[in-house]
Amino acid sequence: MSLAEIDTIVPPPTDGLRHDWSRDEIIALFAQPFNNLLFQAQQTHRRFFDANKVQKSRLLSIKTGGCPEDCKYCPQSSHYHTDLPAEKLMEVQAVLSEAREAKDGGASRFCMGAAWRNPKDRDLDAIIAMVKGVKELGMETCMTLGMLTKAQANRLSEAGLDYYNHNVDTSEEFYEEIITTRTYKDRLDTLEHVRGAGMNVCSGGIVGMGEAREDRASMLMTLANLPEHPESVPINLLVQVDGTPLAGNDELDIFEFIRTIAVARIVLPKSFVRLSAGRENMSDEAQALCFMAGANSIFCGEKLLTTPNPEVDADDALFDRLGLQPYEVCPSE
Questions:
Q1: Regarding predicted confidence, which is higher, 243 or 46?
Q2: Which end of the chain is less packed: N or C, by CB atoms within 10 Å?
Q3: Among positive and negative, which fits the CA dihedral 298, 300, 303, 304?
Q4: Is there a catalytic annotation at residue 111?
């Protein structure tokens, strides 16, 4: 297939954004020869971003375990036996101490996650204090607390929260194979509340859960066809945890994962595409290909909520080898 033929698959829009993708178009992107796909993704990436800069975020679990949802990938679900104890919400000052350490380690965004189905109003005062304290450190803030009502989204926005994370996880067609305690529409409703409150949206998914390529295409179609593209799109490779139903699944081929990153970059050209969970088990070479495919954000630090992540020193060494620089302050998204 020639490069000219690739361009006929997806004619580039004048402003770089589309909201009318079909699943067949996205499947056609996945099906390209690997080198052609990465070339197209890298071209798209360079139109909107510095190809040699990567944004660093730090993720902290501020309330671990005991979640009533039955997400089959999650060790924090109370439905499964993973030896992960349920903990109370962290104290505000303890969270701010972690944020200072993250900033000293080069992170420009601090993400805080709580294992809740949805936050209770009585918890929002502490959450808002965390948001304000992290912002006073000069960092961007992100929260993931489960589903939000309109009123809760408005309170978080008024407090200055920059981003709210709520992943769609997978395709609408495959969703009920993974989660039964909330619907796909519940997730989309929360994204609508977040956007309506004026916050930036962080939303992506998890691959390697037994879904087909068509499901990965459908998931990306959902995100790309939102009225506004998410500013951040985390792409997670399933980390299998003993005790969860997905432990023992066949592992996703790493080239299929890199293809997913590349397609995300093409259909979401102005979004930060985050290489998220699963990096601990990726080679340096695989991560380098992900950056070539358009990933330009990572989580740094030794833990992602409850699963392992590469050490900061290892990331710094990889950045040095590849000539990558972290964004000190994220460009306007």
A1: 46
A2: N
A3: negative
A4: yes
